[in-house]
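Progress report, Aim 2. The chain analyzed during this reporting quarter is listed below.
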Amino acid sequence: MNPGGQQEPPPDFFGALSLIPHGYGEGRFDGRRWGVTVKRSEDNRRVWLFADELAGTDIVSFNLYVLETGPRLKPCEMSSGKVMEFVIGYRPDAAGSPEDRATV
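Predicted structure tokens for the chain:
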């Protein structure tokens, strides 16, 4: 746990997050289609993610701050666990693949 009492993201969280492209994209998580928007600061010390289940009502949203004292994950009205599970399990569509453009 970090000083704020929040769960520290595991190392694979950061690797998985780095594979989600900046801007808007679509992909799969838990067998469902999602639209995901990621914004990163120029220095990569701030990351904002908003994900919306395309055929449902679920969302995932968080801010990540990389501070000198370590990373701080700030989920938006959901658990850190939900955020980490989503980022680690999300698979962005491969660019240009016909299967990726299939309807939901």
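Residues 1-5, 96-104 have pLDDT under 50 and may be disordered. Helices lie at 11-18, 80-89. These observations will guide the mutagenesis work planned for the next reporting period.
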